[in-house]
Amino acid sequence: MKEKVLINGIGRIGKSILIQLLQKKEYEIVIINEINPYIENIVYSINYDSTYGSLEDKFKVVEESYIQNSQTKIKITNHSSLFDLDLSDIDIIVDSSGVKTNIEKLRSLPVKAIFLTHPNIQADINLILGANENDLDKQKYKVISTSSCNATALLPALKIIDKEKKIICGDIVTIHPLLNHQRVLDGHFVGSSTRDVEYNFEFGRSSTQNIIPNKTTTIKACSFVDSKFNHELISSNSLRVPTDTVGAINVTLFVEKSCTKEGLIEIFKEYEKNQKFNIVLNNFDPLVSSDFKKEQKTTIIDHRYTDVKNEKMIKLLVWYDNEWGYASKVVDILDFYSNN
Ligand SMILES: NC(=O)c1ccc[n+]([C@@H]2O[C@H](COP(=O)([O-])OP(=O)(O)OC[C@H]3O[C@@H](n4cnc5c(N)ncnc54)[C@H](O)[C@@H]3O)[C@@H](O)[C@H]2O)c1
């Protein structure tokens, strides 16, 4: 039996999830709900993409409110609230709209599970593969947050190091591509109490003309998954840069047990060899951010920059595709949920 899916919000993340789910026979995308009222524009934005290229098997509009390609027919709805939708034919909702919704009310929806593509402390669980998948209890948990792209990339690396060397404290800087809530040229700041975007004057500044510093929610998102990895342990900030996708995290950690650069690389190689999910990729090649575009592994350790000072200070550079890579982890989480 296929899992019948509704995707809410078909922006950067919704679209990456849609395209990856379309490759899998275990899922049927029944509805896309999107507040964009122009179905021709929805189909256009699914078919063509400046970052990842255009779809081979293109969709077209049929019967006014459906889109169809050679494999699939999907109903398009335009409700601003999930509570206005007919969910009688839906098993799973993937909410990639970024809208903050009352979680108690979400639980009452007549579906098996609702996956939120943002960190949410009120969700039944914030889930990152390689960190806490064993805590997933399908009988108990209905609203499942798939955390953030940064936390999905960082937390597995922190846990690997903590297990072997015990982290005392540290600092991270995320270097993050543009997001759709930013402005192209200077304008009023963007942020709202109904979306998971921080109020931040700097995000009203031109995204293509600036490196924009901001307080990242990365460590907070990690703490929702594993409370040990919080702001008492690790400080953080972010630099938003004018690239389309693929982020990097510069990580500095102080640890209790002595280590060497070679020993650390060995630990990550061992993990990569034995991992259950597509998480760690060890890179030794002279690559740049765009080389990691569409990479499904989301904790890419660039060992050209792995370093140890005074046996107890570790430096790592971690890459991840914040759109396609993160979306692939959401799909892996759906698989994990469905198969357990
Ligand atoms: N872009 C990233 O790198 C990234 C990575 C991980 C997680 N996320 C999270 O995923 C979510 C979506 O981010 P995005 O970058 O895709 O944003 P986006 O702005 O590109 O897409 C959001 C889509 O949702 C639609 N939408 C807005 N309100 C809606 C509503 N009430 N009902 C239905 N649709 C609605 C918008 O029209 C838009 O098409 C956010 O929570 C974000 O924090 C983003």
Automatic annotation (TrEMBL):
What are the protein's UniProt keywords? Answer: NAD, Nucleotide-binding, Oxidoreductase
At which residues is there a site annotated Activates thiol group during catalysis? 176
InterPro entries per the record? GlycerAld/Erythrose_P_DH, GlycerAld_3-P_DH_cat, GlycerAld_3-P_DH_NAD(P)-bd, NAD(P)-bd_dom_sf
Q: Which intervals hold domain Glyceraldehyde 3-phosphate dehydrogenase NAD(P) binding?
A: 3-149
A Pfam cross-reference name = Gp_dh_N
Residue positions of the active site: 149 (nucleophile)
- The residues that hold NAD(+) are 12-13, 117, 322
GO molecular-function terms, A-Z: NAD binding; oxidoreductase activity, acting on the aldehyde or oxo group of donors, NAD or NADP as acceptor
Q: What is this protein called?
A: Aldehyde dehydrogenase
Q: Which organism is it from?
A: Arcobacter arenosus
